[in-house]
Design goal:
Blueprint: E1 12-16, H1 21-31, E2 36-38, E3 40-43, E4 49-52, H2 70-79, E5 84-88, H3 96-113, E6 118-121, E7 135-140, E8 146-152, H4 157-166, E9 171-175, H5 180-191, H6 194-205, H7 213-226, E10 241-244, H8 246-258, H9 262-265, E11 268-271, H10 282-295, E12 308-312, E13 315-318, E14 332-340, H11 344-355, E15 360-368, H12 374-380, E16 386-390, H13 395-401, H14 405-408, E17 411-414, H15 417-432, H16 443-446
Parallel strand pairs: 1-2, 1-5, 5-6, 6-9, 9-10, 11-14, 14-15, 15-16, 16-17
Antiparallel strand pairs: 3-4, 7-8, 12-13
């Protein structure tokens, strides 16, 4: 390992937590092992969360084998003061809530204990994004007709997590969030530069009284300016928030590779497994984006529409009156979704499409959560011909390896490694705008940042 830059110099570190092997390898190749810190976002045996800045050796759910000496660790900790850190870590898997808590522990330690100046979070998968609003549960009769609703109270854990993360992090990059609501809740936090507004509120509260009235007004004006629509994140010169589409970066390239002849291309129909009764839904938008990206334009016969009624978190039914799929006979239907969890939504949608004569059903989801034995369940279903997911949830790779051969070949894992690496590149470039002295140990060899 090269000798570390003196602590007085500004450093950019990439902290790598629980990610897929491909993502980790791409990060190391692009930025150099000297700029990577392999950290552990873990759980004790009793479920309590834990965070370790350095991970010595190799754990099953951490892809890099990295061991620093005590002297090297002390040098790195010293160099963290005033540094910028990009954290690449999927908040997913068993004990997900504990992993989310360990991420908060990490942020607190970086800011309070090691005096890191700025932090960007780049989680390939972020937990709790489905807990995005309060909603009403639909009540259906024996024939599947909606006959009423009952109130359900979702505590909006997504918003809670955004606000907690935003107290320490300065920038956020997400991939295929569940809904517009979930995305907007993060945007509202990071666009207003939450850490600065909290600091200003603290200062404003301490400047009460006639002697400090002028200062109070000044900080009040600053706070109002920060919250205005024109405000940009002063640390990065942008909104402080970015969302990546795996539809463009993973699904579409796979589709174009698989279906590259005219006869096949025009035989592919794409749609969401839900949302036909909610035209503003993010799921419909994702599906139309996939149609546009693959076919080049949107046409009615290039897409189908399905309306779903959720009975509970593991049971759904299709509403045929609000669905449209009479034109899919003999077609290859691609279900486009953000998350596959229990698999019930994909299975019901496949049943409906096959009943309309679909020749083949491919179920795509960006985030392969796969609770319990759901991977085996969806792959064993004869109505689903293939399942495509990305490696945003690294545990999907381990589960895939344990499958019997006849099921293993039905599951295709796409990678978002290049997208994640380029997000770190953009993050570095954005921080350079306001911290031009920021550097990796060997920035010239590892990166070429456009001016």
């Amino acid at each position: 390992m090269p000798e570390l830059i003196a602590p007085a110099d500004r450093r950019h570190f990439v902290i790598v937590g629980r990610v897929s092997k491909k993502i980790a390898e791409k990060l190391v190749t692009r930025f150099g092992r000297e700029n990577i810190i392999q950290a552990r976002f873990g759980t004790h045996g009793d479920g309590e969360s834990t965070f370790e800045l350095f991970l010595d050796g190799k754990l099953d759910d951490h892809p890099i084998e990295q061991t620093y000496s005590d002297v090297q660790k002390q040098e790195i900790v010293a160099a963290l003061k005033g540094a910028h850190v990009s954290i690449v870590h999927s908040v997913s898997g068993k004990n997900t809530s504990s992993r989310a808590m360990s991420l908060l522990q990490c942020l607190t330690a970086l800011k309070n204990d090691w005096a890191v100046e700025t932090i960007t979070l780049i989680p390939p998968h972020m937990a709790l994004t489905r807990a995005d609003r309060r909603f009403e549960k639909k009540i259906v009769d024996g024939d599947g007709h909606v006959i009423g609703t009952s109130p359900q109270f979702n505590a909006s854990a997504n918003k809670m997590m955004a606000e907690l993360l935003g107290r320490w992090a300065n920038r956020f990059v997400g991939i295929d969030f569940h809904s517009h609501d979930a995305q907007e809740q993060y945007t509202n936090v990071f666009r207003s530069n939450y850490p600065l507004t909290v600091a200003l509120e603290t200062i404003r509260n301490s400047t009460q009284g006639p002697a400090n009235r002028a200062s109070h007004v000044s900080f009040q004006q600053m706070e109002e300016h920060l919250k205005s629509a024109e405000t940009v994140n002063p640390y990065f010169g942008d909104d402080g928030i970015e969302f990546i589409s795996a539809i463009d970066l993973a699904l579409t390239p796979q589709l174009k590779t698989r279906f590259n002849h005219a006869a096949d291309i025009y035989n592919v129909v794409l749609g969401a497994p839900d949302g036909a009764d909610k035209p503003e839904d993010a799921g419909i938008e994702r599906a139309l984006r996939a149609v546009q990206s693959f076919h080049g334009f949107v046409r009615d016969d290039f897409t189908f529409e399905i309306a779903k009624i959720r009975i509970n978190d593991r049971k759904t039914i299709i509403d045929p009156e609000k669905s449209r799929a009479d034109h899919v006979g003999g077609k290859i239907c691609v279900l486009v979704d953000d998350i596959v969890s229990s698999g019930s939504t994909q299975i019901k949608a496949a049943e409906y499409l096959k009943s309309k004569g679909a020749e083949k059903v491919i179920a795509y989801a960006t985030h392969g959560v796969f609770i319990d034995d759901s991977m085996e369940k969806i792959l064993s279903n004869p109505l689903i011909d293939e399942v495509w997911v990305t490696d945003t949830v690294p545990g999907v790779i381990d589960k895939h390896a344990m499958l019997p051969a006849e099921l293993k070949e039905k599951l295709h894992i796409l990678t978002v490694a290049d997208a994640v690496v380029e997000a770190v590149v953009r993050d570095y470039a954005a921080r350079l705008k306001t911290a031009p002295e920021l550097k990796f140990i060997i920035p010239e060899r590892k990166l070429a940042i456009a001016a």
